[in-house]
């Protein structure tokens, strides 16, 4: 007697296995249902609630939310003071993105092209640790650094550059009483906190530039500067755009940093936070929160056309 | 000719950039020992270790710490289950709507935190859900799923499908294959994902302020101290605790997945 090639079923587990084998879609459904239910209900449900709230309005006399469809709340966004907030946020986001790109490029370029062995690991960890380490601790560190009695003032006095520091602080628009109460300070902290988000995609796209292209460029007589401008930079562009998605979106939504370092001038994130909290105007807060979503959707569409998603 | 050595300017800019990323954190440590508690005077007028004792005895620090640990633990646990399930589904098969699902998973961290927070706040307000520990966990688990997913899906891709078939050929059923073949192979990637998710949740403040109501997690406690400072060096001691609680898991995650194509933490 030979043993049969098909083993007998040994209970429920085997029966289920056979069922999954015959119907792979069933297994897929079993795997996907819990996470999709969670993300669909909790996340998409909340986004829908946000949209819904933004079409409600607040009753001016009672301060209660009126639950009927209106565009009044969105119209409020176009008041001068609210347009100011949106414009200021966009300007800061653009400046931070530019600042991050300038500082990130040498780091990403060196890590991708020249770092080998031990240095490769140093650069990887050196970017990854600040990326993941506590956001609040990083912001707090800068409050210490930028304070009027802090290390920068001390260092500037030490090397006799107080004049320059004071001259910078005297510039209207970016200066202030001290670095920690000036828009310049806010800018510095934003750049610091989001810098790793720019470095990583930049490095990924630079690593994909083939060495043979650089050699070909050199063979054809290009100088280093020409190679950089006409070969490396265009090929690294998707990475820069991918990084800029993060820095732009994160700056636009942040409300902690302008609260701790900077003037009391409001940004979109801070406006949302204050409107839903102390002011109790949830519809207007929701409408404000829709603004970054719309801007990011436009931004992402442009980025997609430029091929930025291949660098993620 | 293109050379294999970086120019001096590039090297200075690169190393300088790395230092710029790391030096500020050191100041947190220094200021925890200063004798000056009314301002951020530099250099510190004197050094003392008394603030560690003061922080230990401050009763208002412990409840937020426990709450943060509890929230991070539960959120990580939920995210690990949901993230593993979805990565198992996404790893091999292609099906209708796959792209949309991957977008849906990434969205909670791709959109600014204030949007996730405000969305949850709107939903709680519309459905009259009172704030509780579970409203915090709901938000945290949502944006932690993608962290576990990123780590697990990369490992799934590297796994050869052959070992699953071999296991089936040798008579194992789906559950035995999962227990004895899949889980040991996924183990370190899941652990790394869990570590990163824990670090992210423990430190999260933007979404949390919208979902916590009157409760205080440790980051919210810190935020209040930053806005209205009392004993400043005590805040530094707590900052060191928060820093360590996020730093150590990240380092472990790195060592768990080092050398593979899917080193942890490349995307947050």
UniProtKB/TrEMBL annotation, chain A:
The chain crosses the membrane at residues 26-52, 85-110, 122-145, 151-172, 184-206, 226-248, 282-302. CDD domains: TM_PBP2 (cd06261). It is a multi-pass membrane protein. SUPFAM superfamilies: MetI-like (SSF161098). Keywords: Cell membrane, Membrane, Transmembrane, Transmembrane helix, Transport. It is found in: Cell membrane. Gene3D superfamilies: MetI-like. Residues 86-303 form the ABC transmembrane type-1 domain. Pfam families: BPD_transp_1. Belongs to the binding-protein-dependent transport system permease family. CysTW subfamily. This is ABC transporter permease. The lineage of its organism: Bacteria, Pseudomonadati, Pseudomonadota, Alphaproteobacteria, Rhodobacterales.
From TrEMBL, chain B:
The chain crosses the membrane at residues 12-33, 65-89, 101-119, 131-149, 180-199, 235-256. It is a multi-pass membrane protein. It is found in: Cell membrane. This is ABC transporter permease. Keywords: Cell membrane, Membrane, Transmembrane, Transmembrane helix, Transport. InterPro entries: Bact_Polyamine_Transport, MetI-like, MetI-like_sf. It holds the Pfam family BPD_transp_1. Belongs to the binding-protein-dependent transport system permease family. CysTW subfamily. PROSITE patterns: ABC_TM1 (PS50928). Residues 65-253 form the ABC transmembrane type-1 domain. It comes from the Bacteria. CDD domains: TM_PBP2. Its main location: membrane. The keyword Cell membrane applies.
